[in-house]
Amino acid sequence: MSLPTTLLGDGLHVSALGFGGMALSDVYGATDPDDGVRTLHAALDAGVTFLDTADVYGTPREGTTGPSGTNEELIARVLADRRDEVALATKFGITGQVGSGVTPTRGDRDYVRQACENSLRRLGIDTIDLYYMHRRQLDVPITETVAAMAELVAEGKVRHLGLSEVTATELAEAAAVHPIAAVQSEWSIWSRDIEAHVVPRAAELGVGLVPYSPLGRGFLTGTVTADRVAQTMLSKQPRFAEHFDANQTVVDVVREVAAELDATAAQVALAWVYAQGAAYGVPTVPIPGTRSAHRVVENAGAVSLRLSPDQKARLDAAAGLVQGGRNFSFATDDWISSGRE
């Protein structure tokens, strides 16, 4: 099976739907690595060949505090046989553990180079297709970090550069140093703050958008339960922990549209992301994550799903029903771009 491709910035072609690998590690609860490998193979078989990971995703290693890289090692098992099929994205910059409540960052030149070498080793590859700055070290100029990343491109260790959760101003400053292929930020029916500044600037600069959590960390699918929330890092986000019941009204709208289209809620939520990207004139490739092979195939069905103007308007309006911000309570407000705009 194949999917259409999308041209992001800087000449980077990827499958029109990507796969977010974080869920295959123990971030949202215990996982089986062998199951993760099977899911990744199913993604490639379904034409979802744009795989996304990060050095910080994975199970913490005993006696260490920095990025474990176990998610990269999991993906390496698939790359060993199918590297030529994959556009591989990974990230650096967060030096604590995801979900730990401790979120230090580094963006100095020495760390950028060290992180890249470590990722290449864990992934078992010579070149990273898309290398993201995961989060900024705020007391290091972004131009300094991107200049270090650009050295990696010149050396052939990285093909394209990306940035995650940057402001519009930071994106422009970075793009003045080196072409930026993509910005990865949270974007979905219930997370739309980047539309104020970041999305228009990306369109202006010819930079693609790679929305993470396009399904609202699963909430928009209607499959997330309160019990699951209580057992994972989701319990640290107010819209899950404090406003779980109230936010079901958003899911109700998604389900109504899904019934009209004979589609699933997940497909409708992804179709909205594609429609919103088109409305802003920015190439958009969402990267939903899942542990389930059949969900990968389901999500791929969103690529060809089209919303009517009325359906799109109703989904747009659902954003006004959301209660609680998208930032996690354990992180400072400047952890996401809207906190620095």
From TrEMBL:
InterPro entries: Aldo-Keto_reductase, NAD(P)_OxRdtase_dom_sf, NADP_OxRdtase_dom. This is Aldo/keto reductase. Transmembrane segments: none annotated. Pfam families: Aldo_ket_red. Gene3D superfamilies: NADP-dependent oxidoreductase domain. Keywords: Oxidoreductase. The lineage of its organism: Bacteria, Bacillati, Actinomycetota, Actinomycetes, Pseudonocardiales. Residues 17-318 form the NADP-dependent oxidoreductase domain. Signal peptide: none annotated. The keyword Oxidoreductase applies. It comes from the Bacteria.
